[in-house]
Amino acid sequence: MPLPPIASPGRPLDRPAVERYARHVLLPQVGRTGQERLSAARVLVVGAGGLGSPALLYLAAAGVGTLGVVDADVVETSNLQRQVIHSDSDVGRLKTESAVEAVARVNPSVAVVRHDLRLDSSNALEVLRDYDVVLDGTDNFPTRYLLNDACVLLGKPHVWGSIYRFDGQVSVWWAEHGPCYRCVFPTPPPPGAVPSCAEGGVLGVLCATIGSVQATETLKLLLGIGEPLVGRLLVHDALAMTWDALTVRKDPGCPVCGESPTVTSLVDYDEFCGVAGPGDGAAADGPRVSAPELAVELGSDAPPLLVDVRGPDERAIASIPGAVAIHLDEFRDGSAFARDELAARGRRIVVMCKVGGRSAEATRLARAAGYTDVVNLDGGVLAWVREVDPTQPAY
Ligand code: ZN
């Protein structure tokens, strides 16, 4: 169901504007009024990098009146493979500087507001407050959670995208109409457990795929047309060239947008993402089994008990057949050990999560509770998806 347009119409289009935006004006869903809405709209693009590049270019070309750009970094040579608003001669300059020039080349009537800073809990609300929509092109978890919470507190839609290697995800988080990022991803991954594009690489053009979906969703929200990506998570695999649309739901217990929120102001997001539990970052410690080894074990006459410690939303995205769902919290409070599935202490147990951090903690807790043959699935379900069952989406 379309939502009401976020942007109100601005000044009537003059003749040059009608000419420039003629292909929009021809669309019954946009028309003159829609184009006037765009010209009055204010969109904040956080990150003038891979996702921000196509988003800025298309939002500028579309005639969004004001574009804010947040970035504190300078252009590096390794950015040029995908960050198409920057060029060779921009290396060493602030990204916001070259973003301003790129937008001006495309559409000089667009006002660009530079925010040469790193968003944190001290400045985010102030920066976001003046914008209609926030387009998230960040590449790190603290800023993502920060943007989510700030958008929830301010009642703004958070058009989020994420890319890694050949995979992309995109959604619109908007607590007033659907889930927020935290509803679906309640806890950040252990520090270091999820490799960044800097570590694992990314296909450059994937930025265009995902960033332009974000720009499309932003325009739809501003215009109030079509079916917004609220409550749906698109998962894209560029190698298989597939798109999966997963339904994602609001969590009534969400700490920021749920029925009794406990996060009512911005917190320290570096700390939030850094304190994922003692030892959680040391996922490589302790006894482990690889995904291909697990596949063999599961196919044997005496398969181990496979325990998935993730929540239901994550399990819905990718899972290993036969796994029993016992949440990490149940290991933490000890209730897991009262479950029937864990009654036989002699049986081999393999514990899994997304990448191996949370399951490492559950493995330790199980060993402390007297289970002797408990091992952690190295690399989690993502390793399984990568090495055993590539038909499932990575997330
Ligand atoms: Zn939420």
Describe it for me?
33% of the residues lie in helices and 15% in strands. By secondary structure, the protein is of the alpha/beta class. The chain folds into two domains: 15-273, Rossmann fold (3-Layer(aba) Sandwich), CATH 3.40.50; 288-387, 3-Layer(aba) Sandwich (Oxidized Rhodanese, domain 1). The strands form two sheets. Strands 3-2-1-4-5-6-7-8 form an eight-stranded mixed beta sheet, with helices on both faces. The protein has a five-stranded parallel beta sheet with strand order 9-13-12-10-11. Helix 5 (95-106) links the parallel strand 2 and strand 3 (111-115). Helix 4 (52-61) crosses helix 10. Mean pLDDT is 92; it is low at 275-284. Bound molecules: zinc ion.
Q: How many individual β-strands?
A: 13
Reading the helices and strands in chain order gives HHHEHEHEHEHEEHHHEEHEHEHEHEHEH
The small-molecule ligands in this entry are:
zinc ion
* Physical arrangement of strands within the biggest beta sheet: 3-2-1-4-5-6-7-8
Query: What's the CATH architecture name of the largest domain?
Result: 3-Layer(aba) Sandwich
Query: Strand fraction band?
Result: 15-25%
Which fold name corresponds to the CATH topology of the largest domain? Answer: Rossmann fold
**Could you name the ranges where pLDDT drops below 50 across 5 or more consecutive residues?**
275-284
Task: Give the name of the CATH superfamily of the largest domain.
Answer: NAD(P)-binding Rossmann-like Domain
CATH class categorisation of the largest domain: Alpha Beta
How would you characterize the largest beta sheet?
Answer: 8 strands, mixed
